[in-house]
Specification:
The complex is a heterodimer of chains A (176) and B (686). With 176 residues, chain A is mainly α. Helices cover 70% and strands 0% of the residues of chain A. Chain A has helices at residues 14-22, 26-48, 51-67, 78-99, 111-115, 119-126, 130-141, 146-153, 157-175. In chain A, helix 2 (26-48) packs antiparallel against helix 3. Chain A is globular, with a radius of gyration of 17 Å. In chain A, 39% of the residues are buried. Residues 1-10 and 101-111 of chain A have low confidence and may be disordered. Chain B has 686 residues and is of the alpha+beta class. Helices cover 38% and strands 17% of the residues of chain B. Mean pLDDT of chain B is 74; it is low at 73-138, 141-217 and 398-402. Chains A and B meet through helix 2, helix 3, helix 4, helix 6 and helix 7 of A and helix 1, helix 3, helix 4 and strand 7 of B.
Amino acid sequence: MWGDMVMMTAQTTDNDLALSAAAGDRAAFAALVRRYTAPLLEFCQQLLRDRSGAEDVVQEALLKAYRNLPRFDPGRRFGAWLYKIAQNLCFDQLRLRRRLQPLPEVEAVAPPLAEQGFGALDAAVAQLGPKYRAVLHYKYALGWNAREIAEQLELSPSDVRVCLHRAIKTLRERLA
Amino acid sequence: MSCPPAEQLLDAALGLLEADELAALTQHLEICAVCRAHRAALSAEQAVLHDFYARPVPSEAALEQSIIASMSSSPHQRRRVSPMKTIAIAAGLCLAVVGGVLAYRTQVSEEKPGVQQAQATEQTVPPQRPDESWEEYVRKNQAALEKAGLMEASAAEQRDELVMLVEAAERLKDVELLTQAQTKLRLVQVDKELGEATVLLDRMGLPALHDEGPSTEAYDRIYENRFVRAAESPLSTFSIDVDRASYANVRRFIQQGQKPPPDAVRIEELVNAFRYSDPSPGLKEQHPLAIDVQVAGCPWQPEHRLVRVALKGKELPAEQRPASNLVFLIDVSGSMNHQNKLPLVQKALRQLVYQLDERDSIAIVVYAGNAGLVLPPTSGLRQAAVIEALDQLKAGGSTNGGEGIELAYKTARENFIEGGINRVLIATDGDFNVGIADRGSLTRLIEEQADGGIFLSVLGFGMGNYKDATLEQLSNAGDGNYAYIDSMEEANKILGREMLGTLWAIARDVKLQLEFNPAQVNGYRLIGYENRILAHEDFNDDSKDAGDLGVGHSVIAFYQVVPAGVEFPEQVDPLKYGPAVSENPNPSPELLTAKLRYQLPADDAPSQLLEVPVIDTLATLDTASDDFKFSAAVAAFGLILRDSAYKGGANWGTVQELASEGLGEDADGERARFLVLVAQARDLSE
């Protein structure tokens, strides 16, 4: 509906789009939504292990980002900012859920993952704590370095290192 | 050279090594086959993780579309609207403009472009948004919409609402939403009756768009009671109303520098918001409530008399209070994430928790994206546990309902205390979406549960108390009460000092019927209680519900009486055939008889009757009690705020003078605060 209003190329950076969006260009934000919805959903599913909860969070995160665009610091990466919003919403959700009864069950392995031979790994990842899952996602899905991950999660880089080591050790044990 | 620790090899695989460390390790790997093999295994491991996380992500076009569609005009004004709310607003807007469905919208005439805009949506032809920026569109249409009475440019909040409306109308392009909105619309058109339509409008959550002027959608229109000739209709019958939400709401408007919309001013709720020292029945008294009637000069109409009917519930020692089984149903959706919403709910409920003890049990259910039992029924003795659970609540997530209210009732049912106080307390900002979409089933559920002994209290929080009428009606369905909490002060009052009294009903289905003596009374008018009027025959019909009275509670009702021989204030032609009843040769000196019926809360015994004949001693206002003066001042305040046709000579001076004279002991300082409020209201209007 909005995408035709502005010509956009794949090279337009996220930050350019975010700045246009902050200036009131809805089409620019729509483009960001298209870029980020699917990967963000993957991320939130990893953290929440619940498809519909993840959809809610993605929607809320993007709308929250949209509302807060005027406060977006162009010196930061838009992606990191957006993931941080989503990450915090997920953590809030998880904290809330811990108070809820009955606890939502960890979602069963999705068949496509099992078909790809990832079933066991997916189940093992699911049993890690949310912070570990976030670290792994930032590292492997997004390819961020330890400093970037540390900043995102408000940890020290050495905490991130410890997280990675522990996560991998746990995964090895579970998959052994 | 010894082999490096395994951690260092993993660090290398993870890319965490500094350049010098990496160089040293590379050197070592060249000479050490064991470490090389180890390193290779780690790399393979990393590759699996990379593959796992880098697997293709399916496209999420539908979700993208829904997110894009829910973005509003500009980042600065974005306010989140859940799809249901959007439909509701869209449908509500359509409804509001379906020509003449609602009497109070009739002044929005059709030559106003903003309305035509909205009407277009009703005909399923969505408005075409020209090729201009969103802001441009809103700006251009702003004037037109303002003219149509749909918006107040001054208030950013209302502009926000308008943008939502425009967007909602536009969104009808979405086939699914369109279908749903049309279904709702059809539903509305089936029930064209004015009353029904008003109820539906509330259900759809059409927000108040303008807070001034005679038509605010979210408050039920109050048609003030008129003067009635005693000779033609000597009986006046109504149900008591113990709510006082209107006072807190009116106070909020005034403190924010706005005039409250007239329909938000329910005079009986203003008057009943204060404590009075009317005589209460002694502990040994047969009836749990007392009725007292005083008559004095009417402050705003000197030739009239003002009759003050006061009911007072028996004061009982706290140890006699029955055990209570309370379930808090708390809205933790994103919209509650505001200083005067969830944090205030937490602090407010704490006040109630402090008063509970080992007889009681509290459970907490929250609803937002999911509904859940946050705290299973817990003894009132374990206050710390309850408060901890309350404090942990955080707002977030969409309000797509869940089974909140059902879960709350289920919890209350499982923990039912025979002969105790069994009650669900909902704390919400009025975005009352508890998982049951249509209001009919919701009301039914609440009524069924009330029949089964579980009652409902509604605590409204936050700004923009848009669903005022809805919340009040829901709490009425559940034989409950409705309070609006805007500040910690109000929370202390409602939940701290008075809640248990409110919950602890000592009389139910309390009805009042006054019979005026035509020999002494030309006419009379009941002030307030417009939505509590009962048919005269309902008075003796125990199957007809009415309000409950709590321990130590007061309920005040005022009648303005035109004495015999004083001109009747409304223009009515004289009766052609004379009065219905022949003149009584021996007229009674009594002014009126006040009759009261009530039932005891916990049994089905037939209602009991109390009767008080009243003679007017022609007392002047000066000699009236403090309570009479103060409550009359509050009534006059209400008449002025409503700009009532019956305010007579009432002015701010009258209110201030009367209230100061009637200040009395004012143990809780509420009366003094009222005087401050009156001064603020006076400043606003001058």
